[in-house]
Amino acid sequence: MTNPIEDIEQAEVILITGSNTTENHPVLSSYVKRAVTQKGTKLIVVDPRKISITRFATHWLRQNLGTDVAWINGMMHVIIKEELYDEAYVQSRTVGLDELKAVVERYSPEYVEEITGIPAKDLVAAARLYASAGAASILYCMGITQHTTGTDNVKSLANLAMLCGNVGVRGGGVNPLRGQNNVQGACDMGALPNVYTGYQKVDDISARSRMEKAWDVEGLPSKPGLTVTEMMTQASEGVLKALYIVGENPMVSDPDLNHVKEGLESLDFLVVQDIFLTETAQMAHVVLPSASFAEKDGTFTNTERKVQRVRRAVKAPGDAREDWEILCDLSTRMGYPMSYRNSRAIMDEIASVTPSYCGINYSRLTKKGIHWPCTGTDHPGTPCLHVDQFTRGLGVFHAIEYIPPAEMPDEEYPLYLTTGRLLYQYHTGTMSMKSPGLNQKAPECYVEISPQDAERYGVKDEMPLKVASRRGDITARARISRQAVEGTVFIPFHYAKAAANFLTNPALDPVAKIPEYKVCAVRIERQGD
């Protein structure tokens, strides 16, 4: 997030898109609801489903799946045409406006309505409201990123925010809501195939040299590695021979699960390190039991870039050990000795090799967290990014054309499928499905279908439905809901017994390599009355 969570209540307007905020981020959603109900903030929600947060919205725009670039371009078309943008901000802090203008010129509200299904008058009203705010915050989540155009979607939101001078101001910003605990921290620590800690690129000679010196090694890789989805493809092709999976359950979470299963079964050696015996761990040659968050010391970095201490509350059961201890022992046995006294020593090394973390240590984290970048032990941290200027100097507008999803409905597969999460289950259910109370609230998978589609296909509530895509099929009970949009079914992806990701499309965003979980084509068949 460019801004801290507390800034949400300082916004005059909040734009939420690609986020079922009340179910996926229930604590953070309370800031939004409080801003609307107690502070007069106006809320715009852009989502194809009538999610709960729409009850608080001044405007709810219901777009067709995978059309985000089009409606964002449409809003910018209105804002530019009516001269509602922040000209002083744009002139002093950005470049590329002329190129942006040239592209969005043809995205009139009427043209955008043809693509997105959003009524032209509603788009105009939302654009005017967003542009009128002294500070407007954009909140988004995986409904924006999990597309073959996910990178374009994010850049487009950045365009919109810069156009109205909403980056670097309190109550503004472009704020991604992370999907899992410490995703931000994992990325910060280099758990990506193309960077070291602090997003230092592996193909940067100076960064690579610093790491080689710090770790007393030579010949660190100069080319980016593989993403998870690329690993599965190479495993199924016999190129990748071994895989070490830590804290992840791709046999439920990855797209096209038949392909994932084929890849994992093709490996010569599979190691899984986790706190429970997940569906993926059941396929492993070796399982290494690790400690949970409550059983270890360390730090987490949350969605607003705040680094916070975590302290062990209980002892880990049985032979379970902290992840860093397991990794250090393995590394030592494989020929590179790794030894740390404790997690504090690891944090000290992180600070020494990571410019954005260099001022953060355990002593400073005793009472409160610190937002990175924190460039010295006397630096207070940076809750709000880009206040005076962008990291690169001038912000760049990206002129982006709309590209349709990789897979569209046709005669054979006439419906859209989109996937997501529920309030009462979490990710692949590794932890939440151990709770009887949560299982009572959300016991099994279902297929959310609109009343119009239910009537068209003769579907009754609770009727078993077979849902099939070009990659596989599952069976789950129908749930007829006015929350659903006609022509689209929704399935929560948590449930291994009817895993939605048997259906989803593994087509990737060309830059971020994120699969298109949010759009694919399916058909439904009744399985009984």
How is the topology of this model organized?
Layout: E1 13-17, H1 21-24, H2 26-39, E2 42-46, E3 59-61, H3 68-81, H4 87-93, E4 94-95, H5 97-104, H6 109-116, H7 120-132, E5 136-140, H8 142-145, H9 150-163, E6 174-176, H10 183-188, H11 205-215, H12 228-236, E7 242-246, H13 250-253, H14 257-266, E8 269-274, E9 286-289, E10 298-301, E11 306-310, H15 323-333, H16 343-353, E12 370-371, E13 395-396, E14 415-420, H17 436-441, E15 446-449, H18 451-457, E16 464-468, E17 473-480, E18 488-492, E19 505-508, E20 515-516, E21 520-526
The outline comes out as: globular
CATH topology of the largest domain: Dimethylsulfoxide Reductase, domain 2
For the biggest β-sheet, the strand order reads 15-17-16-21-14-18
Discrete helix count:
18
| CATH class label of the largest domain | Alpha Beta
Specify the biggest β-sheet: 6 strands, mixed
Strand content bin: 15-25%
The total of beta strands comes to: 21
User: In terms of structural class, how would the helical and strand content be classed?
Assistant: alpha/beta
Name the average pLDDT: 95
Give the helix level as a range of percent: 25-40%
How far the N terminus sits from the C terminus, by CA atoms, comes to 47 Å
Low-confidence spans:
none
CATH homologous superfamily assignment of the largest domain: Dimethylsulfoxide Reductase, domain 2
Count of individual domains: 4
CATH architecture of the largest domain: 3-Layer(aba) Sandwich
Any idea what the radius of gyration is? 24 Å
